[in-house]
From TrEMBL, chain A:
Protein name: Mitochondrial import inner membrane translocase subunit
Gene that this sequence comes from: Timm13a
Biological source species: Elachura formosa (spotted wren-babbler)
Gene3D superfamilies, per database record: Mitochondrial import inner membrane translocase subunit tim13 like domains
Membrane topology of this protein: Peripheral membrane protein
GO molecular function, one term: metal ion binding
UniProt keyword annotations, A-Z: Chaperone, Disulfide bond, Membrane, Metal-binding, Mitochondrion, Mitochondrion inner membrane, Protein transport, Translocation, Transport, Zinc
Entry note about domains: The twin CX3C motif contains 4 conserved Cys residues that form 2 disulfide bonds in the mitochondrial intermembrane space.
InterPro entries per the UniProt record, alphabetical: Tim10-like, Tim10-like_dom_sf
Record domain Tim10-like: where: 31-91
TrEMBL record, chain B:
InterPro entries xref list: Tim10-like (IPR004217), Tim10-like_dom_sf (IPR035427)
Chain intervals with Low complexity compositional bias: 1-20
Sequence similarity: Belongs to the small Tim family.
Metal-binding found in the keyword field: yes
Role: Mitochondrial intermembrane chaperone that participates in the import and insertion of some multi-pass transmembrane proteins into the mitochondrial inner membrane. Also required for the transfer of beta-barrel precursors from the TOM complex to the sorting and assembly machinery (SAM complex) of the outer membrane. Acts as a chaperone-like protein that protects the hydrophobic precursors from aggregation and guide them through the mitochondrial intermembrane space.
Pfam families: zf-Tim10_DDP (PF02953)
Keyword Membrane: yes
Protein name per UniProt: Mitochondrial import inner membrane translocase subunit
């Protein structure tokens, strides 16, 4: 399976690695980037679910009612907004720190 | 090469988390390939950033968010920004003070038992 994927991806990315393109560093890097992105998405989802469950679900009933669903939907958007705000703020701070070196 | 980290922690993590892992070189991981080495350094740094954003978002949500509304109001937004800044200040404060207490006492364990 791995070899099959490698040769397929190798030609797609055109990294033109070594002779057999077996351990093509370009390929490895692309795969690692994908895995990192997936891991980050999972992390985000996990924390978002935790926070929105806490905010929106009181006493758990037999199903998610309309108001709970609306709350969760809004909560998801607000969580993304918060994440982006934090990301920007942190980035600014890092740049400021570097500038002050 | 990492002196003054507490004051103006550059690059990888201003908040000082994972300081033990501010790996000076990814040589062991990337092996001989300098391209891979560089890649690992860059991705590691990006990941540290992401992790901290996750962590701070979680913490600051608790402090800044009451009821999720149709949009992030400016009060909450300001709170998040302040929260990030204060979190990093806290981290730097801790590092600095730790450095100081380690300098003034001969053994770390002494300062812990204070």
């Amino acid at each position: 399976v791995t070899l099959g994927m490698e040769s397929g991806f190798g030609s797609d990315f055109g990294s033109g690695g070594g002779a057999g393109g077996k351990l093509d560093p370009g390929l490895i890097m692309e795969q690692v980037k994908v895995q990192i992105a997936v891991a980050n998405a999972q992390e985000l989802l996990q924390r978002m679910t935790d926070k929105c469950f806490r905010k929106c679900i009181g006493k758990p009933g037999g199903a998610l009612d309309n108001s709970e669903q609306k709350c969760i939907a809004m909560c998801m958007d607000r969580y993304m907004d918060s994440w982006n705000t934090v990301s920007r703020a942190y980035n600014s701070r890092l740049q400021r720190e570097r500038a002050n070196m | 090469a990492r002196e003054g980290r507490g004051a103006a922690a550059p690059g990888s993590s201003a908040a000082g988390t994972g300081s033990a892992m501010d790996a000076p070189s990814a040589a062991g991981l990337g092996g001989a390939d300098p391209q891979l080495q560089r890649f690992i350094e860059v991705e590691t740094q990006k990941q540290r950033f992401q992790q901290l954003v996750h962590q701070m978002t979680e913490l600051c949500w608790e402090k800044c968010m009451d009821k999720p509304g149709p949009k992030l109001d400016s009060r909450a937004e300001t709170c998040f920004v302040n929260c990030v800044e204060r979190f990093i200040d806290t981290s730097q404060f801790i590092l600095n003070r730790l450095e100081q207490t380690q300098k003034s006492k001969s053994a770390f364990s002494e300062s812990l038992s204070d």
